[in-house]
UniProtKB/TrEMBL annotation:
Gene3D superfamilies: Chorismate lyase-like, Winged helix-like DNA-binding domain superfamily/Winged helix DNA-binding domain
SUPFAM superfamilies assigned to the protein according to its UniProt record, in alphabetical order: Chorismate lyase-like (SSF64288), Winged helix' DNA-binding domain (SSF46785)
Protein name: GntR family transcriptional regulator
Superkingdom, natural source: Bacteria
GO biological process, one term: negative regulation of DNA-templated transcription
UniProt-recorded Gene Ontology molecular function terms: DNA binding; DNA-binding transcription factor activity
Length: 245
C-alpha cells in the first residue's frame, strides 16, 4: 500500500493515516509503517512523525503494540452512510473490516415526519420508499441507517423498492440513467431521545420510560431539479463518529 502524501506537517501526516483508517484500507490490527519509513516517505523530521502518531493515539485510532509498533485500534470509528458512499467511491469497500449489516427492511409508507417532508418536498401523507438496516461491528450493533426516497427517485431507480440489498449505490444508478449529477447536501447532527424501535434495533435493554439519548446525523441528496433522498443514521450511545470539519 502506498503511503506517500504531499503533506509536510504533522497534521498532514495524521490526516493521511486517518483517511486510510476511516476508509477501511487500514484495518484494526494493521501496523502503520515505522517512524523511519514515515520520515522517508513524507520527508519530515522524527519529531513531526511522533506528533502525528500522538494525534492519532489521542483520537483512539491507533495504539502502541510493543514490537509490532503502532497499529490501528480495534473498531475505532462508526461512520455515517454518507461516508460509506465516499468510501465506496474511493476503494469499492461497502463494509470496513469486521463490519456487517442486518435487519434489512424495505417498505412503502405514507410519510408524516415534518423534517422528512420538508427535506423531500413531500406533502404529509405522500408515499415514499423507506429502507432500514442495522450496521454492526464485530457482531455488535453500532447504528441504524434509514433512507427515504420520494416517487420520482424510485421511478428512475426501481431497485430501491425491491426487498433486497442494493448491489450498487442509488446515486451512481440515478446519474447513469438520467445524466444528472447527484449532490450530497450538508450533513447535520443532533441528539434526541431514542424510540423503542431504535432501542430494540441497537439491542439496548433500557428500563421502561427511561430516556436514552442518541446521536443522529442526517443528509439530503439532490440533483438540479429535485430532492432525491433523505438519509438518517442513529448511533448507539458511546459510538465514536467522525465529523467532517
Amino acid at each position: 500500500m502506498a503511503y506517500k502524501s504531499p503533506g509536510k506537517g504533522y497534521a498532514d501526516v495524521a490526516n493521511h493515516f486517518r483517511a486510510l483508517i476511516k476508509s477501511g484500507e487500514l484495518a484494526p490490527g494493521d501496523a502503520l509503517p515505522s517512524v523511519a519509513e514515515i520520515r522517508d516517505q513524507f520527508d519530515v523530521a522524527a519529531k513531526t512523525v511522533s506528533r502525528a502518531l500522538g494525534v492519532l493515539k489521542g483520537e483512539g485510532l491507533v495504539t502502541s503494540r510493543g514490537s509490532l509498533g503502532t497499529v490501528v485500534a480495534k473498531s475505532p470509528l462508526v461512520i455515517t452512510g454518507a461516508d460509506r458512499l465516499d468510501r465506496m467511491a474511493r476503494n469499492g469497500l461497502r463494509y470496513a473490516p469486521g463490519e456487517t449489516s442486518s435487519g434489512h427492511k424495505v417498505m412503502r409508507r405514507s410519510v408524516h415526519d415534518a423534517d422528512v417532508c420538508r427535506a423531500l418536498d413531500l406533502e404529509p401523507g405522500d408515499e415514499a420508499v423507506i429502507r432500514i438496516r442495522v450496521f454492526r461491528q464485530d457482531g455488535r450493533p453500532t447504528s441504524v441507517g434509514v433512507s427515504v426516497y420520494p416517487p420520482h427517485t424510485v421511478s428512475e431507480v426501481p431497485e430501491l423498492a425491491d426487498d433486497a440489498r442494493m448491489t450498487r449505490q442509488f446515486d451512481a444508478l440515478y446519474t447513469e440513467r438520467t445524466g444528472r449529477e447527484v449532490v450530497k447536501g450538508q450533513r447535520t447532527a443532533h441528539a434526541r431521545q431514542a424510540s423503542q424501535d431504535e432501542l430494540d434495533a441497537l439491542e439496548i435493554d433500557a428500563p421502561p420510560h427511561t430516556a436514552v439519548a442518541v446521536l443522529v446525523t442526517t443528509v439530503v441528496f439532490h440533483d438540479d431539479e429535485h430532492a432525491l433522498g433523505y438519509w438518517e443514521d442513529v448511533y448507539a450511545p458511546g459510538a465514536h463518529v467522525p465529523i467532517s470539519s
